[in-house]
Design goal:
The chain is of the alpha/beta class. 51% of the residues lie in helices and 12% in strands.
Length: 190
């Protein structure tokens, strides 16, 4: 590294309830002079502003340090794009927990292999989640937001509108629901 080269860190957790403390401590111990950190899902690297800022910031000769490979990329495609960006800029990557350093040929090989495993693991997790959702739905579990109106209330809305001349606004007020909810209830077959 030349005198102007820097050690830059990147840390990420997926949700607001998670903490960056452990990653930030590791990056500090690795000698990072600047750290980009965010709480964002890792699925699409283009939608992570701090990662994009980090990739724009790093310069030739810099070393980008992350604690684990999955903190930077969750798919082989994203990993390949990021690796290409870093390579074109002349930036090395060091992954602390997996002991990867892309300044060596062994490090570049491990980087590629671990990226493939990270994508495989994410795919398996998504399949398990999908299977769990299908099983729950087969058992009658309903997902999503609870309906604003029961079937009986919808029937009453249709009756009040058709037979007693209640307006949509009156029905909205009576049932404390939005205009679209009343219209949906009116449009459903009895």
């Amino acid at each position: 590294m030349s005198q102007t080269s820097q050690i830059i860190g990147y840390a990420r957790v997926s949700s607001v309830g998670q903490h960056l403390d452990v990653q930030l401590e590791k990056l500090s111990e690795a000698g990072c002079t600047k750290v980009f950190a965010e709480k964002k899902s890792g699925r699409q690297y283009e939608n992570r502003p701090q990662l994009q800022a980090c990739l724009s910031y790093v310069r030739e000769g810099d070393v980008l340090v992350i604690s684990r490979l999955d903190r930077m990329a969750r798919s082989v495609l994203d990993l390949a794009k990021i690796a290409d960006t870093l390579q074109k800029k002349g930036v090395s990557l060091r992954v602390l927990d997996q002991a990867i350093d892309t300044t060596t040929s062994e490090g570049r090989l491990m980087f590629s292999l671990l990226g493939a495993f990270a994508a495989f693991e994410a795919d398996i997790r998504a399949e398990r989640q999908s299977d769990g959702i299908k099983l729950a739905q087969a058992k009658g579990v309903r997902f999503g937001r609870r309906q604003a109106l029961t079937d009986d209330q919808k029937a009453t809305i249709r009756r009040l509108h058709a037979q007693e001349g209640f307006s949509v606004g009156q029905l909205q007020q009576k049932y404390q629901v939005g205009r679209a909810t009343v219209y949906r209830a009116l449009s459903e077959a009895a």
